[in-house]
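REQUEST ID: PR-0412
SUBMITTED BY: lab tech R.K.
PRIORITY: routine
TASK: structure prediction, single protein chain
INPUT:
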Amino acid sequence: MMNSLNKHIHVFGYLRTFISVSNGKIINITGPSVVYCPLAKHLYHFPPEAGEPRKNVIKEAIKQAID
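STATUS: complete
OUTPUT:
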């Protein structure tokens, strides 16, 4: 039981999506609630085919930030 208490879980928001990270790995991600945001598209360099923020695009961006 003591090992479960020593885990660090970080929860943060990214484009109105909640991401849970533990030990450098994404363990949970909610769906984005942003429909369209040109500023976010510019800042986070979404690929043109992504159009709107998608869960998989956000997940890849977070993985790159962790690595």
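NOTES: The chain has a mean pLDDT of 76.
REVIEWED BY: pending
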